[in-house]
Amino acid sequence: MQAMRICVVGSGPAGLRAAEVAAERGAEVTVFEAKRSVGRKLLVAGRSGLNLTHDESFESFLGRYSGDDLPIDRWRQWLHEFDSATLRRWAADLGVETFVSGSGKVLPLPVNGQMKATPLLRHWIARLAKLGVHIRTNQRWIGFDADKQMLFEHGGECTTQAWDAVILALGGGSWPKCGSDGSWTSILEAAGIRVAPLRASNCGWETSWPADLLRQAEGLPLKNLQVHAGDQARSGELTITRYGLEGGPLYALGPTLRTMPDPGIAIDFKPHQSKADLLRRMGNVQRNFTREAFRRLNLDPGTRAILKYMPGRGPWTSSEQVTAELKHCRIELSGPRPLREAISSAGGIAWTEFDENLMLKRLPGVYAAGEMIDWDAPTGGYLLHACLATGTLAGRAAARNPK
Ligand SMILES: Cc1cc2nc3c(=O)[nH]c(=O)nc-3n(C[C@H](O)[C@H](O)[C@H](O)COP(=O)(O)OP(=O)(O)OC[C@H]3O[C@@H](n4cnc5c(N)ncnc54)[C@H](O)[C@@H]3O)c2cc1C
After folding, report:
1. Which of 22, 133, 351, 360 could form a disulfide with 27, with the two C-beta atoms 3.0–4.6 Å apart?
2. What does the pLDDT read at residue 402?
3. pTM of the predicted model, to two decimals?
4. Which fold has domain 5-200+339-400?
Protein backbone atom coordinates (compact mmCIF):
# COMPACT_ATOMS: atom_id res chain seq x y z
CA MET A 1 0.00 0.00 0.00
CA GLN A 2 1.26 3.47 -0.83
CA ALA A 3 2.17 5.67 2.15
CA MET A 4 -0.15 8.60 2.91
CA ARG A 5 1.43 11.88 1.81
CA ILE A 6 0.92 14.48 4.51
CA CYS A 7 1.70 18.18 4.38
CA VAL A 8 2.35 19.92 7.71
CA VAL A 9 2.49 23.72 7.65
CA GLY A 10 4.44 25.36 10.48
CA SER A 11 7.48 24.04 12.29
CA GLY A 12 6.59 25.04 15.83
CA PRO A 13 6.03 22.42 18.53
CA ALA A 14 2.53 21.57 17.25
CA GLY A 15 3.67 21.05 13.66
CA LEU A 16 6.82 19.10 14.53
CA ARG A 17 4.88 16.84 16.88
CA ALA A 18 2.17 16.23 14.28
CA ALA A 19 4.88 15.40 11.71
CA GLU A 20 6.58 13.01 14.13
CA VAL A 21 3.40 11.12 15.03
CA ALA A 22 2.22 10.85 11.41
CA ALA A 23 5.65 9.65 10.24
CA GLU A 24 5.77 7.04 13.04
CA ARG A 25 2.53 5.70 11.57
CA GLY A 26 4.13 5.22 8.17
CA ALA A 27 3.07 8.49 6.48
CA GLU A 28 5.40 10.34 4.14
CA VAL A 29 5.52 13.77 5.74
CA THR A 30 6.76 17.15 4.49
CA VAL A 31 6.90 20.16 6.83
CA PHE A 32 6.65 23.60 5.20
CA GLU A 33 7.96 26.59 7.14
CA ALA A 34 7.81 30.26 6.09
CA LYS A 35 11.00 31.22 7.94
CA ARG A 36 14.59 30.31 7.09
CA SER A 37 14.83 27.95 10.07
CA VAL A 38 12.49 25.83 12.17
CA GLY A 39 11.01 26.26 15.65
CA ARG A 40 11.93 29.90 16.17
CA LYS A 41 9.33 30.61 18.84
CA LEU A 42 10.24 27.42 20.69
CA LEU A 43 13.82 28.68 20.83
CA VAL A 44 12.62 32.06 22.14
CA ALA A 45 10.45 30.28 24.73
CA GLY A 46 13.57 28.50 25.97
CA ARG A 47 15.54 31.68 26.55
CA SER A 48 14.33 32.13 30.11
CA GLY A 49 13.98 28.39 30.85
CA LEU A 50 11.83 26.10 28.71
CA ASN A 51 8.74 25.34 30.79
CA LEU A 52 7.45 22.22 29.03
CA THR A 53 4.50 21.28 31.23
CA HIS A 54 3.31 21.45 34.81
CA ASP A 55 3.34 18.86 37.57
CA GLU A 56 0.05 18.96 39.49
CA SER A 57 -3.14 16.94 39.85
CA PHE A 58 -4.81 16.24 36.51
CA GLU A 59 -8.02 18.11 37.47
CA SER A 60 -6.11 21.19 38.50
CA PHE A 61 -4.04 20.95 35.27
CA LEU A 62 -7.20 20.68 33.18
CA GLY A 63 -8.72 23.68 34.98
CA ARG A 64 -5.99 25.97 33.62
CA TYR A 65 -7.45 25.88 30.11
CA SER A 66 -10.23 28.12 28.82
CA GLY A 67 -11.70 29.16 25.47
CA ASP A 68 -15.11 29.80 23.89
CA ASP A 69 -16.93 26.47 23.43
CA LEU A 70 -13.80 24.53 24.49
CA PRO A 71 -15.10 20.91 24.23
CA ILE A 72 -14.13 20.05 27.77
CA ASP A 73 -14.79 16.30 27.58
CA ARG A 74 -12.66 15.85 24.49
CA TRP A 75 -10.02 18.23 25.85
CA ARG A 76 -9.90 16.12 29.00
CA GLN A 77 -9.45 12.95 26.95
CA TRP A 78 -6.67 14.43 24.76
CA LEU A 79 -4.74 15.79 27.72
CA HIS A 80 -5.24 12.53 29.55
CA GLU A 81 -3.81 10.56 26.62
CA PHE A 82 -0.87 12.92 26.42
CA ASP A 83 -0.42 13.91 30.06
CA SER A 84 2.57 15.45 31.85
CA ALA A 85 4.18 12.06 32.51
CA THR A 86 3.85 11.11 28.82
CA LEU A 87 5.31 14.45 27.77
CA ARG A 88 8.27 13.98 30.10
CA ARG A 89 8.87 10.46 28.72
CA TRP A 90 8.75 11.88 25.20
CA ALA A 91 11.39 14.48 26.11
CA ALA A 92 13.51 11.80 27.82
CA ASP A 93 13.31 9.64 24.66
CA LEU A 94 14.79 12.61 22.83
CA GLY A 95 17.63 12.62 25.35
CA VAL A 96 16.28 15.58 27.35
CA GLU A 97 15.69 14.72 31.00
CA THR A 98 13.40 17.04 32.93
CA PHE A 99 12.91 18.08 36.54
CA VAL A 100 10.12 19.67 38.55
CA SER A 101 10.81 23.09 40.07
CA GLY A 102 9.52 24.12 43.50
CA SER A 103 6.46 25.72 41.89
CA GLY A 104 5.61 22.66 39.77
CA LYS A 105 7.13 23.84 36.48
CA VAL A 106 8.67 21.04 34.42
CA LEU A 107 11.93 22.16 32.82
CA PRO A 108 14.82 20.44 31.01
CA LEU A 109 17.73 19.58 33.28
CA PRO A 110 20.27 22.37 32.82
CA VAL A 111 22.99 21.91 30.19
CA ASN A 112 25.94 24.21 30.94
CA GLY A 113 23.72 25.88 33.55
CA GLN A 114 20.94 26.65 31.03
CA MET A 115 17.48 25.22 30.41
CA LYS A 116 17.15 26.30 26.80
CA ALA A 117 15.23 24.65 23.97
CA THR A 118 18.23 24.21 21.68
CA PRO A 119 19.20 20.64 22.70
CA LEU A 120 15.59 19.46 22.54
CA LEU A 121 15.03 20.98 19.11
CA ARG A 122 18.33 19.57 17.80
CA HIS A 123 17.47 16.01 18.95
CA TRP A 124 13.90 16.38 17.68
CA ILE A 125 15.02 17.38 14.17
CA ALA A 126 17.43 14.43 14.14
CA ARG A 127 14.57 12.09 15.06
CA LEU A 128 12.37 13.56 12.32
CA ALA A 129 15.17 13.06 9.79
CA LYS A 130 15.44 9.39 10.86
CA LEU A 131 11.70 9.03 10.35
CA GLY A 132 12.12 10.38 6.81
CA VAL A 133 10.31 13.71 7.42
CA HIS A 134 11.27 16.33 4.82
CA ILE A 135 11.58 19.90 6.06
CA ARG A 136 11.25 22.73 3.54
CA THR A 137 12.02 26.20 4.86
CA ASN A 138 11.34 29.59 3.19
CA GLN A 139 7.99 28.20 2.03
CA ARG A 140 5.04 30.42 2.88
CA TRP A 141 1.56 28.99 2.65
CA ILE A 142 -0.56 31.64 0.91
CA GLY A 143 -3.90 29.86 0.54
CA PHE A 144 -5.78 27.34 -1.59
CA ASP A 145 -6.04 27.23 -5.38
CA ALA A 146 -9.34 26.77 -7.23
CA ASP A 147 -9.17 22.97 -6.57
CA LYS A 148 -8.60 23.53 -2.82
CA GLN A 149 -4.94 22.44 -3.15
CA MET A 150 -2.28 24.06 -0.97
CA LEU A 151 -0.47 27.04 -2.53
CA PHE A 152 3.02 27.94 -1.35
CA GLU A 153 5.18 30.92 -2.21
CA HIS A 154 8.96 30.55 -2.39
CA GLY A 155 11.34 33.17 -3.78
CA GLY A 156 8.50 34.95 -5.61
CA GLU A 157 7.18 31.75 -7.21
CA CYS A 158 3.99 29.88 -6.38
CA THR A 159 3.74 26.11 -6.29
CA THR A 160 0.84 23.82 -5.68
CA GLN A 161 0.66 20.13 -4.91
CA ALA A 162 -2.00 17.58 -3.96
CA TRP A 163 -1.78 15.87 -0.53
CA ASP A 164 -3.68 13.05 1.14
CA ALA A 165 -3.98 15.16 4.29
CA VAL A 166 -2.86 18.58 5.52
CA ILE A 167 -2.08 19.68 9.08
CA LEU A 168 -2.09 23.42 9.73
CA ALA A 169 0.07 24.43 12.71
CA LEU A 170 0.77 28.10 12.03
CA GLY A 171 0.68 29.38 15.61
CA GLY A 172 -1.10 32.43 17.03
CA GLY A 173 -0.25 36.07 16.52
CA SER A 174 2.23 36.98 19.24
CA TRP A 175 5.92 37.62 18.59
CA PRO A 176 5.38 37.79 14.79
CA LYS A 177 9.11 38.09 14.19
CA CYS A 178 9.28 34.36 15.05
CA GLY A 179 7.03 33.66 12.05
CA SER A 180 3.56 33.23 13.56
CA ASP A 181 1.99 36.46 12.33
CA GLY A 182 -1.65 35.35 12.23
CA SER A 183 -1.92 36.07 8.49
CA TRP A 184 -3.61 32.65 8.10
CA THR A 185 -6.80 34.03 9.70
CA SER A 186 -7.91 35.79 6.50
CA ILE A 187 -7.18 32.67 4.40
CA LEU A 188 -9.37 30.47 6.58
CA GLU A 189 -12.09 33.10 6.91
CA ALA A 190 -12.22 33.32 3.11
CA ALA A 191 -12.80 29.54 3.12
CA GLY A 192 -15.85 30.09 5.35
CA ILE A 193 -14.19 29.08 8.62
CA ARG A 194 -15.05 31.00 11.78
CA VAL A 195 -12.00 32.41 13.52
CA ALA A 196 -12.25 34.27 16.85
CA PRO A 197 -10.03 37.39 16.64
CA LEU A 198 -6.51 36.83 17.97
CA ARG A 199 -6.01 38.76 21.22
CA ALA A 200 -3.01 39.31 23.45
CA SER A 201 -2.78 36.74 26.25
CA ASN A 202 -0.16 36.28 28.95
CA CYS A 203 0.82 39.91 28.60
CA GLY A 204 1.30 43.07 30.61
CA TRP A 205 -1.59 45.49 31.19
CA GLU A 206 -1.44 49.24 30.84
CA THR A 207 -2.17 51.90 33.41
CA SER A 208 -1.00 55.47 33.48
CA TRP A 209 1.37 55.94 36.38
CA PRO A 210 2.15 59.42 37.70
CA ALA A 211 5.63 60.59 36.64
CA ASP A 212 6.88 60.70 40.24
CA LEU A 213 5.85 57.10 40.81
CA LEU A 214 7.69 55.94 37.69
CA ARG A 215 10.80 57.91 38.62
CA GLN A 216 10.99 56.04 41.91
CA ALA A 217 9.56 52.65 41.08
CA GLU A 218 9.93 51.70 37.38
CA GLY A 219 11.26 48.14 37.21
CA LEU A 220 10.65 47.40 40.89
CA PRO A 221 8.99 44.12 41.90
CA LEU A 222 5.89 43.89 44.07
CA LYS A 223 6.29 40.55 45.83
CA ASN A 224 3.97 38.13 47.63
CA LEU A 225 0.74 39.78 46.51
CA GLN A 226 -2.74 38.58 45.91
CA VAL A 227 -4.33 40.16 42.85
CA HIS A 228 -8.13 40.19 42.41
CA ALA A 229 -10.10 40.70 39.18
CA GLY A 230 -13.85 40.08 39.21
CA ASP A 231 -14.37 36.97 41.35
CA GLN A 232 -10.91 35.58 40.55
CA ALA A 233 -7.72 35.93 42.58
CA ARG A 234 -4.12 34.94 41.87
CA SER A 235 -1.01 35.15 44.03
CA GLY A 236 2.51 35.97 42.96
CA GLU A 237 4.70 38.84 41.91
CA LEU A 238 4.15 41.86 39.66
CA THR A 239 6.64 44.32 38.20
CA ILE A 240 5.99 48.04 37.78
CA THR A 241 6.80 48.94 34.18
CA ARG A 242 6.81 52.16 32.18
CA TYR A 243 3.41 51.28 30.75
CA GLY A 244 1.76 49.51 33.68
CA LEU A 245 2.21 46.09 35.23
CA GLU A 246 3.61 42.71 34.20
CA GLY A 247 3.65 39.37 35.94
CA GLY A 248 2.20 35.92 36.50
CA PRO A 249 -0.98 36.91 38.40
CA LEU A 250 -1.97 39.30 35.59
CA TYR A 251 -1.25 36.66 32.93
CA ALA A 252 -3.49 34.20 34.77
CA LEU A 253 -6.24 36.80 35.24
CA GLY A 254 -6.12 37.83 31.55
CA PRO A 255 -9.24 35.86 30.48
CA THR A 256 -11.25 37.57 33.26
CA LEU A 257 -9.82 41.03 32.57
CA ARG A 258 -10.62 40.71 28.87
CA THR A 259 -14.32 40.25 29.68
CA MET A 260 -14.50 43.36 31.89
CA PRO A 261 -15.84 46.54 30.23
CA ASP A 262 -13.63 48.62 32.58
CA PRO A 263 -10.78 46.29 33.46
CA GLY A 264 -9.13 46.78 36.81
CA ILE A 265 -7.50 44.89 39.64
CA ALA A 266 -7.47 45.14 43.40
CA ILE A 267 -4.17 44.27 45.05
CA ASP A 268 -3.86 42.84 48.52
CA PHE A 269 -0.27 43.75 49.40
CA LYS A 270 -0.38 41.73 52.63
CA PRO A 271 -2.42 38.60 51.85
CA HIS A 272 -0.98 36.68 54.79
CA GLN A 273 -1.89 39.32 57.35
CA SER A 274 -5.37 40.35 58.44
CA LYS A 275 -6.42 43.95 58.93
CA ALA A 276 -6.17 43.37 62.70
CA ASP A 277 -2.56 42.09 62.29
CA LEU A 278 -1.62 45.19 60.32
CA LEU A 279 -3.27 47.53 62.80
CA ARG A 280 -1.38 45.79 65.61
CA ARG A 281 1.92 46.18 63.78
CA MET A 282 1.38 49.88 63.30
CA GLY A 283 0.48 50.36 66.95
CA ASN A 284 0.05 53.90 68.06
CA VAL A 285 1.95 55.75 65.30
CA GLN A 286 1.74 59.51 65.74
CA ARG A 287 4.68 61.62 64.64
CA ASN A 288 5.75 61.48 60.95
CA PHE A 289 2.73 59.24 60.45
CA THR A 290 3.30 58.05 56.86
CA ARG A 291 7.03 57.37 57.19
CA GLU A 292 6.67 55.61 60.53
CA ALA A 293 3.62 53.53 59.50
CA PHE A 294 5.32 52.37 56.25
CA ARG A 295 8.45 51.48 58.24
CA ARG A 296 6.58 49.44 60.83
CA LEU A 297 4.70 47.61 58.07
CA ASN A 298 7.99 46.88 56.30
CA LEU A 299 6.62 48.06 52.92
CA ASP A 300 8.91 47.58 49.93
CA PRO A 301 9.80 50.64 47.79
CA GLY A 302 7.32 49.73 45.01
CA THR A 303 4.35 49.53 47.39
CA ARG A 304 5.43 52.77 49.08
CA ALA A 305 5.56 54.54 45.71
CA ILE A 306 2.05 53.34 44.82
CA LEU A 307 0.64 54.45 48.17
CA LYS A 308 2.47 57.76 47.95
CA TYR A 309 1.91 58.84 44.37
CA MET A 310 -1.26 57.21 43.04
CA PRO A 311 -3.94 59.87 42.63
CA GLY A 312 -6.58 59.85 45.35
CA ARG A 313 -4.31 58.04 47.83
CA GLY A 314 -3.15 59.83 50.97
CA PRO A 315 -2.32 62.00 52.69
CA TRP A 316 -2.30 59.20 55.25
CA THR A 317 -3.46 60.18 58.69
CA SER A 318 -4.83 56.98 60.25
CA SER A 319 -3.81 53.35 60.55
CA GLU A 320 -7.29 52.24 59.42
CA GLN A 321 -6.91 54.20 56.17
CA VAL A 322 -3.49 52.65 55.37
CA THR A 323 -4.70 49.16 56.26
CA ALA A 324 -7.78 49.43 54.05
CA GLU A 325 -5.64 50.55 51.10
CA LEU A 326 -3.03 47.83 51.63
CA LYS A 327 -5.69 45.13 51.65
CA HIS A 328 -7.60 46.51 48.66
CA CYS A 329 -5.65 48.82 46.38
CA ARG A 330 -7.69 49.36 43.23
CA ILE A 331 -5.79 50.00 39.99
CA GLU A 332 -7.66 50.76 36.77
CA LEU A 333 -6.18 49.18 33.65
CA SER A 334 -6.63 50.78 30.23
CA GLY A 335 -5.98 47.58 28.26
CA PRO A 336 -3.54 44.78 27.48
CA ARG A 337 -0.19 45.34 25.79
CA PRO A 338 -0.17 44.82 22.00
CA LEU A 339 -0.48 41.28 20.66
CA ARG A 340 3.02 41.40 19.15
CA GLU A 341 4.52 41.65 22.67
CA ALA A 342 2.37 39.01 24.33
CA ILE A 343 3.65 35.54 25.20
CA SER A 344 0.68 33.92 23.48
CA SER A 345 -2.63 34.73 21.85
CA ALA A 346 -6.19 33.88 22.76
CA GLY A 347 -8.74 33.35 19.99
CA GLY A 348 -8.21 31.32 16.83
CA ILE A 349 -10.19 28.73 14.88
CA ALA A 350 -13.59 28.27 16.58
CA TRP A 351 -14.23 24.86 18.13
CA THR A 352 -17.48 24.52 16.21
CA GLU A 353 -15.40 24.16 13.02
CA PHE A 354 -13.80 20.87 14.11
CA ASP A 355 -14.80 17.25 14.19
CA GLU A 356 -13.63 15.04 17.08
CA ASN A 357 -10.20 14.59 15.43
CA LEU A 358 -9.34 18.25 14.89
CA MET A 359 -10.31 18.03 11.22
CA LEU A 360 -11.98 21.12 9.75
CA LYS A 361 -15.49 20.05 8.82
CA ARG A 362 -15.62 22.46 5.87
CA LEU A 363 -12.24 21.28 4.54
CA PRO A 364 -12.16 17.47 4.68
CA GLY A 365 -8.60 16.18 5.08
CA VAL A 366 -7.35 19.46 6.61
CA TYR A 367 -6.50 19.37 10.34
CA ALA A 368 -5.22 22.04 12.72
CA ALA A 369 -3.12 21.95 15.88
CA GLY A 370 -1.47 24.25 18.42
CA GLU A 371 -2.03 27.88 19.24
CA MET A 372 -4.06 28.62 16.13
CA ILE A 373 -7.07 26.97 17.82
CA ASP A 374 -9.32 28.91 20.22
CA TRP A 375 -7.97 27.80 23.59
CA ASP A 376 -6.10 29.82 26.16
CA ALA A 377 -3.94 29.01 29.18
CA PRO A 378 -1.58 30.83 31.53
CA THR A 379 2.20 30.49 31.37
CA GLY A 380 3.63 27.61 33.37
CA GLY A 381 4.09 24.98 30.65
CA TYR A 382 0.40 24.75 29.74
CA LEU A 383 0.89 26.38 26.32
CA LEU A 384 3.57 24.03 25.01
CA HIS A 385 1.76 21.07 26.54
CA ALA A 386 -1.46 21.81 24.63
CA CYS A 387 0.48 22.41 21.39
CA LEU A 388 2.16 19.01 21.73
CA ALA A 389 -1.09 17.26 22.73
CA THR A 390 -3.09 18.70 19.82
CA GLY A 391 -0.18 18.00 17.44
CA THR A 392 -0.23 14.38 18.62
CA LEU A 393 -3.93 14.06 17.95
CA ALA A 394 -3.86 15.78 14.53
CA GLY A 395 -0.83 13.74 13.41
CA ARG A 396 -2.44 10.48 14.44
CA ALA A 397 -5.81 11.27 12.86
CA ALA A 398 -4.32 12.58 9.61
CA ALA A 399 -2.20 9.45 9.17
CA ARG A 400 -5.24 7.24 9.75
CA ASN A 401 -7.93 8.93 7.70
CA PRO A 402 -7.37 9.38 3.99
CA LYS A 403 -9.53 12.09 2.39
C1 LIG B 1 8.87 34.85 24.99
C2 LIG B 1 8.04 33.59 25.02
C3 LIG B 1 8.25 32.66 26.02
C4 LIG B 1 7.45 31.51 26.06
N5 LIG B 1 7.70 30.58 27.03
C6 LIG B 1 6.91 29.48 27.11
C7 LIG B 1 7.17 28.48 28.09
O8 LIG B 1 8.18 28.52 28.83
N9 LIG B 1 6.30 27.43 28.18
C10 LIG B 1 5.20 27.33 27.36
O11 LIG B 1 4.41 26.40 27.53
N12 LIG B 1 5.00 28.21 26.36
C13 LIG B 1 5.83 29.28 26.22
N14 LIG B 1 5.62 30.17 25.21
C15 LIG B 1 4.52 29.92 24.24
C16 LIG B 1 4.91 28.86 23.20
O17 LIG B 1 6.17 29.15 22.67
C18 LIG B 1 3.84 28.83 22.09
O19 LIG B 1 2.57 28.60 22.68
C20 LIG B 1 4.13 27.74 21.07
O21 LIG B 1 5.38 27.95 20.43
C22 LIG B 1 3.04 27.67 20.00
O23 LIG B 1 3.33 26.58 19.19
P24 LIG B 1 2.69 26.39 17.74
O25 LIG B 1 3.36 25.21 17.14
O26 LIG B 1 1.22 26.41 17.84
O27 LIG B 1 3.10 27.71 16.95
P28 LIG B 1 4.52 28.41 16.73
O29 LIG B 1 5.54 27.93 17.67
O30 LIG B 1 4.22 29.86 16.70
O31 LIG B 1 4.92 27.90 15.28
C32 LIG B 1 4.19 28.25 14.14
C33 LIG B 1 5.11 28.15 12.92
O34 LIG B 1 4.34 28.36 11.75
C35 LIG B 1 5.10 29.15 10.84
N36 LIG B 1 4.18 29.84 9.94
C37 LIG B 1 3.28 30.81 10.25
N38 LIG B 1 2.62 31.22 9.15
C39 LIG B 1 3.10 30.45 8.12
C40 LIG B 1 2.78 30.37 6.72
N41 LIG B 1 1.84 31.14 6.17
N42 LIG B 1 3.44 29.47 5.95
C43 LIG B 1 4.40 28.65 6.53
N44 LIG B 1 4.74 28.69 7.82
C45 LIG B 1 4.09 29.58 8.63
C46 LIG B 1 5.84 30.11 11.74
O47 LIG B 1 6.97 30.67 11.11
C48 LIG B 1 6.19 29.23 12.95
O49 LIG B 1 7.45 28.61 12.78
C50 LIG B 1 6.43 31.30 25.11
C51 LIG B 1 6.25 32.23 24.08
C52 LIG B 1 7.04 33.37 24.03
C53 LIG B 1 6.84 34.37 22.92
Report:
1. 22
2. 60
3. 0.94
4. FAD/NAD(P)-binding domain (3.50.50)
